[in-house]
Amino acid sequence: MQFKNKITLITGAASGIGRAAALAFAKEGATVIVSDMNHQGGKETVELIHANNGKATFIKTDVSKYEEVEKLMNEIIKQFGRLDIAINNAGISGVITRTKDYPVDDWDKVMSINASSVFYGMKVQIPIMLEQEGGVIVNTASIAGLKGLPNSIAYTASKHAVIGATKTAAMEYGRNNIRINAICPVFTVSPMFDPDALEKIAQGVPDKLKANVPMKRFAEVEEQVGAMIWLCSDQASFVTGLALPVDGGLTA
């Protein structure tokens, strides 16, 4: 129960890594604010937490819009009075195609959901943490924020932006007892990355992707969440500005 009574926001928590994080933080005693555009999925996450005697509430938010992120933060303060942990996790993969063929509208959508949302989140979260003299933020980036990923220029650019924003904010607010880090997952089995579905449309591709990972397997959502929990814990009290690869050795 290392996060007992800690008010914890997790965006993109209707499924995948976000849902797993919400369940894990609630199990550790946190009061979890589940945020997502997917109303049904968000409510299901809250129900799963309640079924395990955890504390959670759902607030529907489009994190690609600053006014909605600001409204989310105002509602959190109204209900709970503080914010101890923020996990800016919402994201999409975007279309898969080469740079010259990438649609401009899709570029704008991916950048707004993956990158702008992290800036919007930190912009409204940091003032609250300054006032309460401390807090922890973890942003979900990707190994695509550390290296190139062909046929995914918007996703790759957005995740590089997340890491740059994380490092910059961490340097600015380290003296204020606010730690800001990022995790960089490799291919993680979830609704966003379904190896079986990918095999049906691109035979042999999952095996090729797996072969590039030194551990020769894909990650599970719980393994990404384990990194999040460590970064938010007192065990990582002197860790800030880190882009932590959770990638089975792929970027080694």
Report a brief summary of the structure.
Helices cover 46% and strands 17% of the residues. By secondary structure, it is an alpha/beta fold.
CATH superfamily: NAD(P)-binding Rossmann-like Domain
Give me the secondary-structure category.
alpha/beta
Outline type: globular
Q: How much of the sequence is in beta strands?
A: 15-25%
- Main sheet summary: 7 strands, parallel
Q: If you consult CATH, what is the topology?
A: Rossmann fold
Uncertain spans: none
Helix count, DSSP H or I runs of 4 or more residues: 8
Helix content: 40-55%
Structure description:
Helix 4 (104-131) links the parallel strand 4 and strand 5. Helix 1 (16-27) packs across helix 8 (221-232). The strands form 2 sheets. The chain has a 7-stranded parallel β-sheet with strand order 3-2-1-4-5-6-9, with helices on both faces. The chain has helices at residues 16-27, 39-51, 66-80, 104-131, 153-173, 195-201, 205-211, 221-232, and strands at 7-11, 31-36, 55-60, 85-88, 135-140, 178-185, 188-189, 219-220, 243-246. It has one domain (7-189, 220-246): NAD(P)-binding Rossmann-like Domain (Rossmann fold). It is built from 8 helices and 9 strands. The two termini are 33 Å apart. It has 252 residues and is an alpha/beta fold.
